[in-house]
Amino acid sequence: MAAVEFTEETKQQVERIGSADVVVGIAGAVSPEELRPRAERILQELGSAVSSLRFVFAWPGKAPASPPGESAADNPALALLPFSPPPQAEVWAGVSANQRAVLGLAASLNARVCIVLGSDLAALDARAIQLFAYAVLDRQCGLAMPVYLAARYDGLLNSGILSPLSRALYGRRIRYPLAFDFAASGALCGALSRSNLAAENAGNALLWPVTVASTQNAQVQVGQVHIDVHHKVATEGLELSAVLGQLVGSLFHEMDVCASHWQRIRGSQATPVWGNAGEGSDDAQPIDPQSMLDTFLLGSRNLDEVWRLILPPNSLLELRRLTRRAPDQFRLPDGLWASIVYDFALAWRLRTLSRGHLLGALTPLYLGWAASWVREVSSLSNADAEQRLEQLARAWEEKKPYLLSRWRWPDRFNP
Amino acid sequence: MWQQVEQSLHSSMGLVMNKIATMLPGILAFIVAFLFFLLLGWLVSWIVSRILSGLRFDERMGRGANAMAEFSPRATPSLLIGRIVFWCFVIAGVVVGVSALGTSEQIVSGWMLAYVPRVVGAAILLLAGNVLARFVSRSVLITGVNLNLSYARLLSMGVRWMILVLTGAMVLDHLALGSEIVELGFGILFGGIVFALSLAVGLGSRDLVSRSLEREAARPAEVVPPEKIHHF
Question: Judged by CB atoms within 8 Å, which residues 152-191 of B form the interface with A?
Fold first, then answer.
């Protein structure tokens, strides 16, 4: 299987450093002048808990003023390792390419744990590092994923599609399957760094750590840690349909590749969670989702000919019934939403129509779900909204037999 | 008189029968040649497809295959090559069959042989135009809906018919059917559409356009309120 390619300079630096216990990698360009003091402060804060461990901080970029690879004078347990960033195509794919490079470096350094962090450095603090290291080193997790402190209207794409679909497929109850921050054990680093590199569009392939961990070995324990982080995602200039196409398209691709694996999985297993969940504010202002609902209604009036190629008649009928409801009565049932996404995944596999068109046609449906969701959770407390998310995820699991039937017998199965 | 009519009918029947008898071997040769090349085409395309799948041709094509799949979702490069090979043989079969027919009817076969490349070219143009019209109109429709344009369908239909009309004109031109009329008609049609739109905007909506431009120029820089909903 193909491996991440590094420049000769990076390879020499890796040889000079030799080995490490903990590799903390930043999946994006950062200033070494900012990174170095923060790394030193973290080690000071962690103190005796990590005194026996050797840390390497890796990031895509250029070396700081002092020679790279050389341990900081006042802290021999710390080494800095800049590396050449891999060629990048699109925003999210660029993050994944950097994450793979960091994991590849950790594998080369025979690290016991690799902690990958987002380039805004929001998660670069002692508590997050300690929790990730604790999950992997002390609790023997192969993979530790984050649970962010998110407001109830944040990350709707994750809540509505990525998280429940990943959970239903791979049987792991992970809140953020596509995260900026996560930690992997040394044993899993190699597999994660090589994932999807052999794919036909490797340059744009995203890294789905939970999928890799589940398909590599069903016995790999996956844990979650609460980190009070809110990443700043640069959304300017990004269109929802383009982002949805990239993220959901990548997950559909994983589905296609790992079909033989997820078809054997039934239900889901709880994952251990460490750290204290932060208290989110309950005073979220009610939001009017009318603009999202309008896009859905416009889609239902115009995209019927496209949806007819993808969705079975009963789903179309239910959607048509929904469009006739008053805006305040609009609710997209969880089961219907799950089956719609499953049908789109099947159409993606069968190439029923151009994949770009397919994911474009999913956007109004997603906005319909988002409008329904926003209206529903606006009156709930944060805890109740979390419960509602759990209910949604269970509905996706309950609909999995439908996906299996359609996936195995796409022509024969007629709902 | 009746004898003369009878004789005339007999001689014309004889001529027709003679003509059919002369052409029959040619028609038979045409059918045999066509069937032979059809079978050969099927066999060779099957062999080519097997070789290409053995060489993992589709995977090696990488991005090129993805780009092609956008236009023709179900077609893979190896499938496409297999089909091209098959249809090349079918066309060769038709050409050989027609020339076999031509040994008996030189004029017909000469005219047909000269026209076959044009027909093939026109068929390819028609197919490509249809695929392109469908793809572009669907792209416009989906993008329009995602941009919340209420006239997305109208826009999509306009684009579709423009491409189809353009394709039709190109096909007729390629077949050399009424070339001057087609060129003239197409020019008048397209020019007319553009002129009508110009008049509609310039005369019918003049006040609206000027008010809109004035409002745009006078509007202070808009402060966008922070988004409360985050999809990603």
Answer: 152-153
Give the pair of three-digit tokens for residue A140: 């023997």
d(CA A134, CA A114): 12
Task: Please answer yes or no on whether B69 and A354 come within 8 Å at the CB atom.
Answer: yes
Both structure tokens of B185: 């008609």
Contact between A109 and A79 under an 8 Å Cβ cutoff? The reply is no
CA dist., res. A44 & res. A25, Å (int): 18
Question: What is the C-alpha to C-alpha distance for residues B101 and B113, in angstroms, rounded to an integer?
Answer: 11
How far is the C-alpha of A83 from the C-alpha of A68, rounded, in Å? 10
Per-residue pLDDT of A297-338, as tens digits, reads 999 999 998 999 999 999 999 999 999 988 888 999 999 999
Q: Does B62 reach chain A within 8 Å, measured CB to CB?
A: yes
The minimal CB distance from A295 to the residues B139, B148, B228 is found for B148
For residue B68, which residues of chain A lie inside 8 Å, CB to CB? none
CA–CA dist B197, B201 (Å, integer): 6
And the tokens for B200?
A: 């509609």
Inter-chain residue contact A200 with B66, CB threshold 8 Å: yes
User: Would the CB atoms of A239 and B146 count as touching at under 8 Å?
Assistant: yes
CB A62 within 8 A of CB A68: no
pLDDT tens for each residue of A83-132? 887 776 667 788 888 999 999 999 999 999 999 998 888 888 888 999 99
Contact between A353 and B152 using a beta-carbon 8 Å cutoff: no
List the domain boundaries for chain A: 8-274, 290-408
Q: What is the pTM of this model?
A: 0.80
B73 interfaces chain A, CB cutoff of 8 Å: yes
Q: What is the ipTM of this complex?
A: 0.84
C-alpha–C-alpha distance, residues A266 and A404, integer Å: 11
CB < 8 Å to A201, chain B: 62-63, 66
C-beta atoms of B142 and A303 within 8 A: yes
> Of the candidates A188, A6, A190, A18, which has an alpha carbon nearest to the alpha carbon of residue A82?
A6
By C-alpha distance, the chain A residue nearest B74 is A351
For B41, residues 6+ apart whose C-beta sits below 8 A from its C-beta are B85, B86, B87, B88, B89, B90, B92, B93
| Percent of chain B surpassing pLDDT 70 | 81
Spell out which residues of chain B touch residue A158, defining contact as CB-CB under 8 Å: 232
With beta carbons less than 8 A apart as the criterion, state whether A102 and A81 touch. no
| CATH H-level superfamily of A8-274 | Spore Coat Polysaccharide Biosynthesis Protein SpsA; Chain A (3.90.550.10)
- Average pLDDT in chain B: 80
Q: Measured in whole angstroms, how far is the alpha carbon of residue A43 from the centre of its chain?
A: 28
Q: What share of chain A is helix, strand, coil (3-state, %, to 5)?
A: 50, 10, 35
